[in-house]
Design brief:
241 residues; 12 strands; single chain; alpha+beta; 7 helices
């Protein structure tokens, strides 16, 4: 709900309907297991309650590309039921708890609650904007800029759903995960992490990252958070009450 309210202020009725639709049952999946695989028919959208998931594509020889990370509050493709089959896979990075939203629930929410419809559309536009930024990351930024940009993006997204503690956040990514998301090798990722540490920009220990100088990290990444649309540009969609 926190995520959707970045795009439209929901009324009490909107919130009540959304809470009812996402009340359960709550499902769970272990780390490194798939939630849905490419080629399967998915009739439900999955709302991530806890944990991290990721979208990925694989080549015939097994090479994998992580194409996005899914954080708590993210809805995985609310209109996926339109497709005949999944064109990518969604896996659990950590243990994940989620609820399924079937076509009936999605259509009931969108037909009866216009601002929820607008918020979901806005959410989809932001997801597309993130993919464009990832394309730019892979095509134009160098290695240290790619890593810095990924860290900035994840921190800003986590902060938007209140999952940061001042300048610290959970970052349950292995160097292999980062490599698959940034088009680098794990060895190169390690070198770039050490470089950011040496510059006094981050402290990364275990599953936690502390950003020591956010302004400088954003400068390295040439990071502009405008594509995340976290400044409530959807204020004109605010509901009364």
């Amino acid at each position: 709900m926190d995520r959707l309210e970045h795009f439209a202020r929901l009324s009490a009725d909107d919130r009540e309907a959304l809470e009812a639709a996402t009340a359960g049952p709550v499902l769970s999946v272990r780390p490194r297991r798939d939630i849905v695989r490419e080629g399967e028919r998915s009739r439900v959208a999955n709302l991530i309650l806890d944990g991290w998931a990721f979208r990925y594509k694989t080549l015939a020889d097994g090479r994998r590309q992580i194409i996005s990370f899914l954080l708590p509050g993210d809805i995985c493709d609310p209109y996926v039921y339109i497709l005949q089959e999944m064109d990518h896979s969604i896996g659990a990075l950590t243990a994940v708890r989620y609820v399924e939203l079937g076509r009936d629930k999605i259509e009931a929410l969108t037909s009866q609650h216009p601002r929820l419809t607008q918020a979901l559309r806005w959410d989809g536009l932001v997801a597309a904007a993130i993919q464009r930024e990832w394309t730019l990351n892979l095509g134009q930024r160098d290695a240290i800029e790619r890593l810095a940009h990924l860290l900035c993006e994840l921190f800003f997204r986590l902060r938007a759903v209140r999952l940061t503690d001042q300048n610290r956040c959970e970052m349950p990514l292995t160097q292999s995960d980062v490599a698959e998301a940034t088009g680098m090798t794990p060895v190169h990722v390690n070198r770039m992490i050490q470089e950011l540490r040496a510059r006094g920009l981050i402290r990364w220990k275990g599953r936690e990252v502390e950003v020591l100088d956010m302004e400088a990290l954003c400068d390295v990444a040439m990071f502009n958070p405008n594509y995340l649309h976290l400044n409530r540009e959807g204020a004109h969609l605010d509901a009364n009450g």
